[in-house]
Design brief:
Blueprint lengths: L11 E6 L3 H14 L2 E6 L2 H10 L5 E5 L7 H10 L5 E6 L4 H6 L6 E4 L4 H11 L12 E5 H7 L6 E4 L5 E5 L7 H9 L4 E5 L3 H16 L16 H12 L3 H19 L2 H4 L12 H20 L4 H13 L6 H9 L4 H7 L2 H8 L1 H10 L8 H6 L21 H19 L5 H8 L6 H14 L1
Parallel strand pairs: 1-2, 1-3, 3-4, 4-5
Antiparallel strand pairs: 6-9, 7-8
Length: 455
């Protein structure tokens, strides 16, 4: 796809058949990042059959089993009827081998979901050993705009394709891909954007981590779901009256908080990080962490940055951002960062340094665990930075703070103000207080949106 591109390797042709859009996009991203291959996508078995009727010359078909209109077994039967050397890889969360054997059908490989990438890689290498396939020769790989919207954050620059050989940068590293961006590209009839191949493997890993975190607990029974503490219902009711949360936001946020909490306590590595949530109900940090995801999701919804992944990131960041603090020593300073000079005088040297560095310590806890989406550690590490560059621990200004971190910081600021003034809280007073402090970048955009929604 670049001007320097020369085709020197034989190209394999792979047909991916998957009715889950996220998995279809992820599998395509993975194969583009690993192989010099032509990738064709089908959203269900019937679409795949129509593609094969027009052009059956594929090296490999990778198919889900449970799909509408034509399932993986029926598609396998059709592929076998073509009598062509097509390797058929069945990817499924359920073992269908007995049912297939009754029909005298056997796929060339069967791979279980959801952690299927490494086995898939081995199978493709096994089937294409006679070809040189393991080096992508294109300078860019494609990602659908719907996929980018679902996962929200963009860790690398994105490009639009103008001609076969010409690409133009349309989004910068760490830009957020929200509703506004989705609609902008849809209006231009752009369905895919492109990422440089040199970033493709890291990009895929971040997307896969986010997908696994989302899918890990989607099928939990109601009995298994655990809320953070017994105050959550009253917390939501109280905040809804003040901030006007919609029922949909309440439901979706509670779902992501349940999911994040269950994921954390299911991990021996992470379980200790939530020790604060098991302290007595009067622990102010527990209430603080319970309230925060609702405000954070309220803000990203206002900004058009909301997606399932973004909501889950806010839930994880809310639960973990103060995980290393001692509520009896540090709570008052967490709720009023302007007391930082007071903290220096009142706390011991060790206690003060522990407080100043707690965003980094909590981010390290999050980074150790592979079951949460990427960027959560960044949000946590930056939650005490500010627009003007006078926060801690790194004194980052608005140009160096990620968009989701900006929303989280503003939500944290609103919540801390609310927790200080209690029944006297008025949003217009908070906005007036922050007029000069939220002076640029995403902070200013969020401030203006909040002012607009108050009118």
């Amino acid at each position: 796809m670049s001007e320097n591109h020369t085709q020197t390797q034989p190209r394999i042709r792979i047909l991916i058949v998957e009715d889950e859009p996220e998995l279809l996009d992820l599998t395509s991203l993975f194969l583009q990042s690993e192989f010099n291959a032509e990738i064709i996508e089908a959203r269900h078995g019937l679409e795949a059959k129509k593609i094969l009727e027009l052009d059956p010359h594929f090296n490999i078909v990778i198919s889900d089993y449970n799909m509408p209109e034509l399932d993986g077994g029926e598609l396998l039967s059709y592929v076998r009827s073509l009598a062509l050397p097509i390797q058929f890889i069945l990817v499924s969360a359920v073992d269908h081998s007995k049912a297939l054997k009754l029909k005298n059908l056997t796929p060339d490989a069967t791979i279980p979901k959801p952690i299927f990438i490494e086995p898939l890689l081995r199978a493709i290498h096994q089937f294409t050993d006679h070809l040189i396939t393991n080096t992508p020769t294109e300078d860019y790989i494609s990602a659908s705009i719907d996929h980018l919207f679902r996962f929200g954050s963009v860790p690398y620059p994105l490009f639009a394709q103008l001609t076969d050989r010409k690409f133009v940068k349309v989004l910068h590293e760490n830009d957020f891909f929200g509703t506004e961006e989705l609609e902008r590209f849809r209006k231009k009839k752009i369905t895919h954007l492109y990422i440089e191949t040199k970033h493709s493997q890291n990009f895929f890993k971040k997307q896969m981590d986010a997908f696994l975190a989302l899918s890990q607990n989607k099928n939990l029974s109601q009995a298994e779901l655990t809320v953070v503490n017994e105050h959550i219902s009253s917390v939501v009711q109280e905040m809804s009256l003040i901030f006007g949360f919609s029922k949909e936001l309440e439901f979706n946020t509670k779902k992501t908080v349940d999911q994040a909490y269950h994921t954390i306590i299911s991990s021996p590595v992470m379980k200790g990080a939530l020790k604060n949530s098991r302290m007595p109900s009067g622990n102010p940090l527990v209430l603080h962490s319970s309230r925060l995801p609702y405000l954070a999701n309220h803000l990203i919804q206002i900004m058009g940055w909301n997606s399932e992944t973004s909501a889950l990131k806010m839930a994880f960041a809310s639960l973990l951002h103060d995980a290393t603090l001692n509520h009896q020593i540090h709570a008052s300073y967490e709720f009023d960062p302007e007391l930082i000079e007071t903290a220096k005088k009142e706390l011991s040297v060790d206690q003060y340094h522990h407080f100043i560095n707690h965003p980094l310590k909590a981010a390290e806890v999050a980074a150790q665990f592979g079951g949460i989406p990427s960027d959560v550690d960044t949000i946590i590490a930056q939650h005490h930075e500010n627009c003007m560059g006078t926060g801690f621990p790194y004194r980052l200004n608005h140009t160096r703070i990620a968009p989701l971190s900006c929303a989280f910081i503003v939500a944290h600021d609103i919540l801390c103000y609310y927790e200080r003034v209690g029944d006297q809280f008025k949003m217009e007073n908070f906005l007036e207080l922050k007029q000069d402090q939220y002076c640029a970048g995403h902070f200013r955009r969020i401030l203006l949106e909040l002012i607009f929604t108050k009118k």
